[in-house]
Amino acid sequence: MDPQTLSTLNLRVLSRYDPHITHIIDVASYVVLYDFSLETQSWTKKGVEGTLFIYHRNEPPHHAFIVLNRNTTQNFGGVLASPDDLQVTPEYIIHRADAEEGPEGEEAEDTITGIWIFEPGHRARIAEQMSKLSRLGTTGPERGKTIDVGSLFASVGGAGTTAGSTNAGIVPPVELHPTARAEPGGDRVTAIRAEERCLAQVREQVMSSEMGVRSMWRYVIPIYPKQAWPGKVGHVQTLTINTAITTNRPPGASSKHHHIPSITELEEALINHAGAPSNSNPLNPTAPHRRYLRDYFHPPGSNVRIPILTAKTHLGVATSRGNRLENEDRSQVGILEMPRGRRRGAWLGDIFYFSVVDGHGGHGCADFIRNTLHSYIERADPSQISDLLQNYRDRGGYFRRFEPKSLVDLQRRLDAANKQSYVELSLQRMLARFGRGNGGVQMSMEERLELAFLKADQVFMNGATLQNAERKRDLSGAVASCALVTSSDPDQPFWTANHAELHIAHVGDTRVLLCHANSGKARAVTVNHHPDNPLESARLRKFASGFVTDSFGEERFGAVANTRAFGDVRWKRMGVSAEPFLQKLDLYAPSPKDSDVEHGPNEDSVYAYMVLVSDGVTSVASDQEIIDIVKHHTTPSKAAEAIVKFAEQLGTDDNSTCMVVRLQGWPEGVGKLVDAGVEDFTGELRGWRVEGREVGGRRRQ
Known about the structure:
The protein folds into three domains: 3-206, Pleckstrin-homology domain (PH domain)/Phosphotyrosine-binding domain (PTB) (PH-domain like), CATH 2.30.29.30; 219-310, no CATH class; 315-359 and 477-526 and 580-700, 4-Layer Sandwich (Phosphatase 2c, domain 1), CATH 3.60.40. It is built from 15 helices and 23 strands. The chain has helices spanning 3-17, 120-135, 178-181, 187-206, 263-272, 364-379, 385-393, 405-418, 427-434, 445-464, 534-541, 615-618, 623-630, 636-649, 683-700, and strands spanning 21-37, 42-57, 63-69, 76-79, 86-88, 92-97, 111-117, 219-223, 237-241, 245-247, 315-320, 329-336, 351-360, 477-487, 499-507, 511-516, 522-524, 547-549, 555-557, 566-567, 581-588, 607-613, 656-662. The strands form five sheets. The chain has a seven-stranded antiparallel β-sheet. Strands 12, 13, 14, 15, 20 and 21 form a six-stranded antiparallel β-sheet that branches. A hairpin with a 5-residue loop joins strand 18 (547-549) and strand 19. 41% of the residues are buried.
């Protein structure tokens, strides 16, 4: 059958469901639909699979799609009216649709449908087509609804009344893909297995950065409406941050009638909670609000969301490529989604993740570490240790007898636990103790971080040694500093908690700095992994003699300046390892101003803020200079920009990245820390350095 005749017949069939169809835009021969459950946060088959048609209508909504079910008479359709209702991943097209109303007047849950397309070529084309049409959609009242085929699809044979489905037994004369039509036991089985693999992958993708939920923030800040200011705690509203700062929905209020505060309103709210009341409540619960698709990939709750990076009072990130052709620096901010069963002690609350990654020799390794390291921390498991260490030992050289002490000890604990007889345990005890194959062994955060760093390095190396289509290997590398912070009180964010824990994991020459709240002095909590570090030179001289000094007097190991790094495949056998430097610190809140104790026992562990920087900054600025710059700015965002600008003024020729994170010791209600009496130790020196640089530049001209 020629394509023109086939299109005419298909159009005739579809017109029975939707009389307003004008023409078919695109077709995918075989798709399978899945439903996303907000309650269980999991995907299940919808019971609809068949041919997907995208078509144009002569009245709003102007673009729609329908899947004609090949198994039953229940078809499924939807409209393409807003890009906020569509999410595209490498394997799936995810569509959100509003439900009309819930049972007995209750608020209805919007539906999330995943569209899996068997043919990879069709998948990319259909995703692009649906995204383009969604951006062209109108903003009228029909926007985002599931198509009610009882009205919109006025079927000749009698339509069902359920939104998104129809009872019509018409089989369109479409030509299915040969694989989709094959007999059981043939290629059809291959299609089913491919579909099942994608279903398994989507569970991970729902919680990945591609789905927009990796950096969800779920901590709470008190916000005081005009009716209740400090002292009337019983009436205090809460502001929840999800990658987003959000406000709890009043009981009984609809999620579709909620106001997203503007940045100005948000910053006023964050400031006002410690000061005098404003004229009105900036978080008006009666203002209309539209929820976005990404809101639904989150445990159910009465939250609306806006991006965390707009909350500049708590986090600031700035970067510059300097004089380089490309910027190989990367940064990542988010919250780790570790299973509750693997958390201990202070780590029962939200675990915040901050990292700065500095790539070299290309951006491939930096991109990989930025996008995946947090996932390896989340999924670290003692059962991975044996294969991981064996893989390193097989590389020979420095790693021939590779036995990192903490992981070897953890492996021994696992082996001892697994020697107990399974027969002696009841089924319930067995599931509780051995349910994840780790023998019930709990990892410390230090062990988890070391395992994650080595695992990420191993996976990148294994991929880098495979030649791609151009017969080139990825020989790039990266260094990184990661900071994990959590409050000991799960109901408080770390910057307002009385006690929080900070864990640092670091390889290379990126740096993490803390500012003492009382003295204003800088504290470096990482060390550079350079050949001139006595511990590093002692570690490597046993296995290699590749230490050289370049023309600038800087000692190098082979062709690299860092003795510990991710990637750098050419130098792995010589000892360039991803074993991280680890450190744990306690962070405390300052003593209350009305306290009789002038300096509490934990005053030395009160820090105002944390700074993570790449070596493009530290190569030209001292630790104290970096810390002092922050004291002259009202928000971490402005401070991060100022630090990068200072490095550029001093003539750094490397990529520069800075991240500033607010901690408990930043005084409430105070803008610039210098206004609170915190001393700037390097103000005059910084001025002289910048002026001298400018004078030298004018002379050279």
